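Example S7 (structure tokens).
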């Protein structure tokens, strides 16, 4: 029944699109035609169609209604991304979707979330290739815990869920690695930042590669990805610094100095750790500066205040 509803929704939008095209003025400019009048393009139409779901994603009362709205939106978004030249179209009016580009423009990742009634969020996303077919690789959020998550290589259909805000690229031994920087609202007590590795295997994207060396008060070694979990009210930075050529992030400690491993109590202490890429490995740097800093020397926030969002996203990344 729900599948029929989604099909009807898409069909109705297609009819609406046809109606818009028929309503456009003729190509010949008459005396009454305003010179600054601009016809609605196909991509603008599909962007506006996706944007109509934004309010319901935020305002629907129940979790089921918000999820149903998201599922109704997805086929419309797919149609938008399958349009010719859609990769070059920024979709700026879709403020609730984070759009993050690979530095070499080979792909971009679109991620968004739906607030749940209990605790946390459900994440959605897709990777769009920059090719003639605009190939799409959907990300499927698995809400059940993934065993040994920091060590696993994962297909996109087994995704932990996050909003990505930056991508940087490194290469070694003719292999390209794309470092993904993400945020997870987690729960009422804590939130997380994530650093992951995306690479391509037989033409398909996979998540995770054992190229990150990291040390903390609870673990050390080589990991496929790392998570920084911290107090819900804290601001934690994790990003790539172009000047330093390193990934820089806050050093986190328990607020009371005693609650080791109780991550909802963790806050920045004013010092910074880093990762430096050498010989195919992101090597751990225990301390970046000799004195504490008020703010990490990393790029400005990548989430901008551009209108209402399904939830309040972090102001610093």
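Recovered sequence:
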């Amino acid at each position: 029944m729900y599948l029929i509803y989604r099909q009807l929704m898409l069909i109705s939008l297609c009819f609406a699109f046809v109606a818009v095209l028929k309503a456009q003025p003729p190509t010949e400019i008459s005396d009454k035609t305003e010179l600054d009048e601009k016809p609605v393009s196909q991509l603008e139409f599909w962007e506006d169609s996706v944007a109509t779901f934004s309010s319901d994603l935020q305002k629907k009362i129940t979790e089921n209604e918000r999820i149903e709205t998201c599922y109704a939106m997805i086929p419309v978004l797919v149609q938008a991304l399958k349009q010719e030249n859609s990769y070059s179209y920024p979709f700026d009016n879709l403020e609730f979707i984070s759009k993050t580009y690979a530095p070499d423009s080979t792909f971009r990742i679109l991620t968004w979330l739906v607030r749940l009634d209990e605790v946390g969020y459900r994440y959605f996303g897709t990777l769009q290739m920059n090719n003639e077919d605009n190939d799409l690789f959907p990300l499927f959020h698995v809400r059940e815990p993934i065993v040994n998550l920091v060590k696993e290589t994962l297909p996109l259909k087994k995704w932990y869920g996050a909003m990505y805000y930056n991508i940087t690229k490194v290469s070694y031994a003719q292999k390209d690695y794309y470092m993904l920087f993400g945020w997870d609202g987690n729960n009422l007590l804590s939130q997380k930042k994530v650093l992951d590795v995306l690479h391509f295997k037989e033409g398909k994207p996979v998540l995770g590669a054992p190229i990150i060396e990291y040390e903390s008060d609870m673990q050390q070694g080589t990991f496929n990805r790392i998570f920084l979990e911290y107090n819900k009210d804290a601001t934690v930075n994790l990003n790539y610094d172009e000047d330093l050529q390193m990934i820089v992030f806050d050093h986190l400690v328990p607020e009371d100095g005693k609650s080791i491993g109780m991550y909802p109590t963790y806050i920045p202490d004013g010092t910074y750790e880093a990762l430096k890429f050498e010989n195919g490995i992101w090597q751990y740097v225990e301390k970046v500066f000799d004195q504490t800093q008020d703010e990490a020397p990393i790029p400005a926030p990548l989430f901008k205040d551009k209108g209402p969002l399904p939830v309040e996203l972090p102001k610093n990344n």
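Notes on this example. Residues 1-38, 296-316 have pLDDT under 50 and may be disordered.
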